[in-house]
Amino acid sequence: MKIIYLYDGIPKLIRSEKDYPDESWTEIPPPSGIYQPYYFNGNEWIGSTREEWLESLPKDEDGEPQLPDQSILQMAQTQMQVAESSYQLRDTQKKLASTMLDNAEKDKSIKNLEKQQAEIMLELAEIKGGK
User: Fold this and answer.
1) How confident is the model at residue 62 (pLDDT cuts 50, 70, 90)?
2) What is the reported pTM?
3) What is the DSSP string of 54-93?
């Protein structure tokens, strides 16, 4: 399972190959600190600053921005945390895979050295036995 992001920032949970959407998507999560509306341009996320976002909100009678319901803000924050965690998990998995490859190569080198050592010891034993 992994999380992908549509170019409009909507996260999608992918469980199998058939779950991938037809729309454009990325594995790069939207960074923290950007505000809606935001989108992925194929290379990076483009979004609003907090000031731009506040300016775009509907105003109340006093001219103050009407902030979204607290539950909506909490849900958005949770989605961002999930996205960041997913990105960190993917990065950790890549590092683990790299470490496992390095270990496999080192194990192979050790086996080769052990084989060479055994061959040398056999040759020494033959030399000593031939005297």
Assistant:
1) confident
2) 0.44
3) HHHSPB-TTS-B-PPPHHHHHHHHHHHHHHHHHHHHHHHH
